[in-house]
Amino acid sequence: MKLTLKVWRQKNANDKGRFETYQVEANEHMSFLEMLDVLNEQLVSEKKEPVAFEHDCREGICGACSMVINGQPHGPQKTTTTCQLHMRHFKDGDTIHIEPFRAKGFPVIKDLVVDRSAFDRIIQAGGFISVSTGQPVDGNALLIPKDVAAKAFDAAACIGCGACVAACPNASAMLFVSAKVSHLALLPQGKVEAARRVQNMVRQMDEEGFGNCSNVTACEAECPKGISVENIARMNREYFSASFASEE
Amino acid sequence: MQLEGKIPPGQLAEKWTQYKSTMPLVSPDNKRRLEIIVVGTGLAGASAAASLGELGYNVKVFTFHDSPRRAHSIAAQGGINAAKNYRNDGDSVFRLFYDTIKGGDYRSREANVHRLAEVSANIIDQCVAQGVPFAREYGGYLDNRSFGGVQVQRTFYARGQTGQQLLIGAYQAMSRQVSLGNVTLYNRHEMLDVVLIDGKARGIIARNLVTGEIERHSAHCVILATGGYGNVFYLSTNAMNCNVTAAWRAVKRGAFMANPCFTQIHPTCIPQYGEYQSKLTLMSESLRNDGRVWVPKKLEDAKAIREGRKTANDIPEEDRDYYLERRYPAFGNLVPRDVASRAAKVECDAGKGIVPTGLGVYLDFASAIQRYGKSKAHSMGLENPDAAIITKLGEEVVEEKYGNLFEMYEKITGENPYKTPMKIYPAVHYTMGGLWVDYNLETNVPGLFALGECNFSDHGANRLGASALMQGLADGYFVIPYTVGTFLSKEIRTPRFSTDSPEFEEAEKAVTERLTRLLENNGSQSVESFHRRLGKIMWDYCGMSRNAEGLKKAMGLIRELREEYHKEVFVPGSMNEYNPELEKAHRVADFMELGELMCLDALNRNESCGGHFREEYQTEEGEALRDDKNYAYVAAWEWTDTSKDPQLHKEPLKFEAVELKTRSYK
Q: What CATH number should be reported for the domain whose range is A116-245?
């Protein structure tokens, strides 16, 4: 299949950036990233700079790949990361627009690569359970109902890719933050410091320049792991109850 | 040079307890003065950084990823082993120890493996406390499943994403230490050299991957947790950026590489489908709990399937060969990985392969779907349910167990594994070899430690499923916090190191020169094209089966390729910018040297054991034939210089608690 690619090229954070057009010959069995590999091989053979894009596991779990394909983070296929998107979802002759995740909280580093370290700082602000190595009791001393474990897992399945932010018109990080708040608040071992956690994480989220939630739910629609906006509701509840009950 | 394993005295089961209660300690006040560098933030690195930070050491942790959470531990699917005996099925610390030694074909160190089995139970408790959402039963208790090479159920899991959940747990524990100021995180930094001062590891040279700046970082000791080197084969289940550079740079500074030829070929991966392919995808071993592996009995059926004239569903039951169940009745589909992989190769070599390339076999869930469907119908009180209902109920149970894996398979192949059997073939997955370490996980370079897949110590010639997660976390949470003290207790008077010393100067200069050489090379071929060619040589001659002639040939080919590389490779861009091609070029250069050493090691080991199958050494039935008299040792290789062969040092393996037997899963 012959494709026309309009790819965002930006040398570094200070460069203004622009779309460049490339022609590439792909086949339907390739993953989207393998198609970009073909483009990059082509560029290298012409002694040009290849397109910088982030990728690693290519199994849909590391969360490294971060690009907007034809206006959608991770492209057109639901609950699929870019690395798991295959070219059979495109047609011969298609023109494909590829650009980086765009948000104030995610400054561009180069081409399609953005800086998502804000997410790490939000986790550092409170996305953990304060337990040191060697302290715990037996794993079965704490009984956790099957459905509670499953629900916590659903929230914990977040891969931290940032597609939720890229999809949101407000560039809000609420889905990411609420997934972590929910994962830990649902479990008995995480309840102890739940109030403190949600307040600290929300504070950090605001400091990082992410916007607010206005219930568009584009985040859920584009999330490659299908994280539910229910988590946002849960986080809001946790946050309000923590704010009212807090003595700090 | 005599390699000293530093195994503590006493009974096997007492060694670790004894060690912990008699080792020298570092007082809290002194810990605050000491600095530790941890390279890598996978399970081993993140758990080590977290635990050492909790103890009060000053930890600097480095990852080349944008976030520590991207390390490839994240992709581990199936589970983590622990000798909890929650199933009441006869598990124990000794049983886990024994299974691991046997699974590794008697090529690992008893004391290290026993310690691993001892701390395994603590890992589960630790992870539960961190909030890892392990699978639970209706009563709220932890659930288990089975993995290859064992006859008990000791594997804990979180759907098919156990690695992800464990890594997030370790990442969060480490993030807590970052917030407390005990750990400093350097993301997007790649270690390109280790710095030795008076023979001890005292720092690293790292490149800031955003600005391209070369940085010097000092500490009282250096811990490498930088994973395995499976990407030397180009195609593997490793992430694209997995590489050997950190470990290889240590080798260049005097650390020994142990058993580099011990690579694990995982039996259940999605077969290769095209020349442009960039990686192979694993389908978890847990699938072999319920999936049955088969090929057609008749060659003409296999041919018809390959040519698209027939499908799996056209082959009647009596014409299918469930070859693992036939050859290994005691373990059936759950034989260890090396055995299952070789068996698949035997069938495909005989012309029974079922994909167009001839390299693929079936993994079939139809029986499991029927079994679960009937059981579910029974529990729902349905009398005489029809076939469609049974299938539907069975598919629901299978979905609950393996849903995400089935979905991933469908996304990649475009085929529905509930309706037609999966197609699988072995692929490079894990490297048992790695930096040589003693009982303290310290390399032969004082102050340089290696954890997780980066070291060689626990899995011998073949790793059992769900044991990599166990080892990574054991090393990071429960071993290094103790053993690092043995080294650091002698360093409490050592002041912090300035990075202005000649040693740092020299190391930085060497790194800059290497990178400059690559950038200024006036070649015309891409890094990728060389990596592919290297991978093909490695797979053809140092892959699932090896022979002396092929290995010698491969060494020559690699040497030629290496020369060509340094003449012909083209690296675009410059040093002082974000430049992924440059990163890759440096990594591939190191793979080119490692590859030759792997062949040399495989050539030296005139026996077959675990994942190392030398065609010259096999039983009449085609099973691996070990030579305990001559090869019950760890082969630790010392790098001399590029023009000469590395030098071999042997650490004899002594077995006191187990008797060396022919490994049988029949």
A: 1.10.1060.10
